[in-house]
Specification:
Blueprint lengths: L3 E7 L13 H18 L3 E14 L3 E15 L2 H11 L17 H4 L8 H10 L9
Antiparallel strand pairs: 1-3, 2-3
């Protein structure tokens, strides 16, 4: 199975000037083209663009939500890199799995309401309780 590594970078916010490019749309397309070509030269494949919310401070106590545009790239890991990544990322013993089999539990037993003590048990408890001395003023 092929494993990938991912890189997310901020999308350009404005266009890049170049000779012969006059409109804002063309300048922005030129900036995106250069960015995509730079990443492709390093072996990154363009995957998608995402717009994600980001909470920022506004004034002393206020907060506002702004949206950030990011570009997501991926590239396949070499076999050696993938093996090292698996060895590093997977601990020897995962804490949420146990090698001991759990005993089956009857679902009907887990949903029973607690039983109240009978009248005889309640009287026994109240007789064994220590007496409280109250002084009336």
């Amino acid at each position: 199975m092929t494993q990938f590594e991912y890189e997310a970078i901020a999308a350009p916010r404005k266009g890049k000037k170049a000779r012969g490019i006059k409109t804002n749309e063309d300048r922005f397309a030129h900036a995106m083209t250069e960015l995509l070509n730079e990443m492709a030269a390093d072996g990154w494949e363009y995957l998608r663009a995402d717009t994600l919310p980001c909470e920022e401070r506004s004034g002393f106590t206020g907060r506002t939500t702004v949206y950030q545009n990011i570009l997501v790239f991926r590239r396949a890991l070499d076999r050696d890199d993938a093996v090292e990544a698996v060895e590093v990322d997977t601990p020897k013993e995962t804490p949420y799995r146990s090698s001991v089999m759990a005993t089956p539990v009857d679902v009907a037993d887990t949903h029973k309401a607690p039983s109240l003590p009978s009248a005889d048990e309640a009287n026994t408890v109240s007789q064994n309780a220590p007496a409280i001395n109250r002084q009336d003023s």
